[in-house]
Amino acid sequence: MADVKIQMKIGEVEFSGEGEQAWVGKQLEKILNAAPTIAASAARRAPTHSSEAGASGVPADSNAASQTLAKFLRDKNAAANQVKKFLATAVWLQAKGKNRLTTGEITRALKDSNQSRLGNPADCLNKNVSKGFCEKDGKEFFVTTEGVASL
Q1: How many Å apart are CA 133 and CA 151, to the nearest integer?
Q2: pTM of the entire structure?
Q3: Predicted pLDDT at 4
Q4: Angle of helix 103-112 relative to helix 82-95, nearest 10 degrees?
Q5: Fewer Cβ neighbours under 10 Å: the N or C end of the chain?
Q6: Closest CA to 86 of 141, 10, 5, 25
Q7: What digits encode the pLDDT tens for the residues 12-59?
Q8: What's the number of CA atoms in the CB half-sphere (13 Å) around residue 137?
Q9: Cα dihedral sign, 103-57-127-85
Q10: What angle do CA 90, 91, 97 make, to 5 degrees?
Q11: What are the CA-CA distances from residue 83 to residues 33, 64, 67 (Å)?
């Protein structure tokens, strides 16, 4: 008997099978029977925050992602103050879809956008944490709603 191949995706779950037609047919039947459960499970895991929230669940600046970093820093008056520049860059990256950040990513974003570097990015992070504008999460951090609002 000829081999049959099938490939399908339901939500985040992918299935592919290849083999005898009878075996593939049984596997397909199992997947189709489980499809409602798979779809319901995926719906429960989907983010529930509003569409205006960034990847971290923090409300994103409505136009931050569409602006260049240099323009965003100018608009937020964050070009001169290093702690504020660090925070604004983090907000800009989160608006672009980054959930958790590192100080290296902040440094890289500034460098890639031809902006002046930060003297001590770790100190800038610590100062933002002490103000409640950022929260550390292991070796990474995220901007709080208070941090976004402060800009």
Answers
A1: 10
A2: 0.60
A3: 80
A4: 90
A5: N
A6: 141
A7: 667 777 888 888 888 878 877 877 776 666 555 554 443 344 444 444
A8: 12
A9: positive
A10: 90
A11: 55, 18, 20
